[in-house]
Write a structure and sequence with these properties.
With 145 residues, this protein is mostly helical. It has a domain of 84 residues. The chain has seven helices and two strands; from the N terminus they run H-H-E-H-H-H-H-E-H. Strands 1-2 form a two-stranded parallel sheet. Helix 1 packs across helix 2 and helix 5 crosses helix 6. The longest helix is centred in the first third of the chain and has 25 residues. The protein starts with a helix and ends with a helix. Pfam families: DUF3597. This is DUF3597 domain-containing protein. InterPro entries: DUF3597.
Length: 145
Amino acid sequence: MSILSKIFGKIFPSAHAQTPPPSSSAGGSLSADEAAAASAASDAASRAAGAAAAASATMAEVDVKALLDDMASKNPQKLNWKTSIVDLMKLLDLDSSLGERKELATELGYTGDMNDSATMNIWLHKQVMNKLAANGGKVPADLRD
């Protein structure tokens, strides 16, 4: 499952459907290499389909700011989710490590220097807010652009 799909699953729970495991081919047996290749291709297709389903699912408008403010008020940590992708991911109980953020950046098409994590993080936060807004989330303009 893509990282963006995980974020959507926390914000839009109804869009967070699990992808069923791939069924095996009924037409003959595969070599170990063929089975591994088929499994890898199926896994990649499942992740892509899951991301597309989460991104394109018709969702009731969710007040993202109100939802996240409520979550933040119940969290023992003081998290600045409005400006920090790390804090947003922590608030959603997701892995906020640099590796995960780099993977999210790759998913979202980041073309900048991933070693400049401050610039990447700012870009990621805006992109996630824009994606939430584009997919049924009510996100204030100051959090999007």
